[in-house]
Amino acid sequence: MWPADRFAEVARYLLETYPNQHIVLTGASNEMSYADAFLAYIPESERVLNLTGKLSIAELIYVLSKADVLIANETGIVHLAASTNTPTIVISQGKSLVRWHPYLPPLQGRIVHLYPEYIEQNRNNLSAIAPKFNPESLFPITIIEPDRAIRQLNVFLKRGVSFQ
Q1: For residue 76, with 0-12 CB atoms within 10 Å meaning exposed, 13-18 middle and 19 or more buried, which class applies?
Q2: CB 67 within 8 A of CB 24
Q3: Alpha-helical regions (H) of 18-145
Q4: Which pLDDT tens digit goes with each residue over 58-86?
Q5: Quick check: 29 and 53 in contact, CB under 8 A?
């Protein structure tokens, strides 16, 4: 799991750079401590809504369908976002290479995986390197820096084109 302070760095950037954007924090009830850690790193704001542990799957899908972008670890929410055409930035160590990624061509521009550099350099050869990453990645998730997520966030938000 990408550390809360990394997500918070991206969130602070979003709050400072995009005054019309809001942050909706979601997760299961057993992720409340992670949500609290994240919230401790960002300033209090009425533009941040913590819905951790409060949503059913149907409600989560609705929230995703209204989102301009999702930033998440490589978990089930990414697949839900794909089903709603929500542009998504996936922070991934590469544990699920080939199994879940790449998505089919119509979704590839919407679901962007940020991998450790070794995987990025071998994107055209994921099938060949995938066995090295199953069941565990060779790299810690902390190798992925927040500036990469921020760059992709800018691509999605400055594009100004609806994916819906």
Answers
A1: exposed
A2: yes
A3: 32-40, 57-66, 76-83, 105-108, 117-121, 126-129
A4: 999 999 999 999 999 999 999 999 999 99
A5: yes
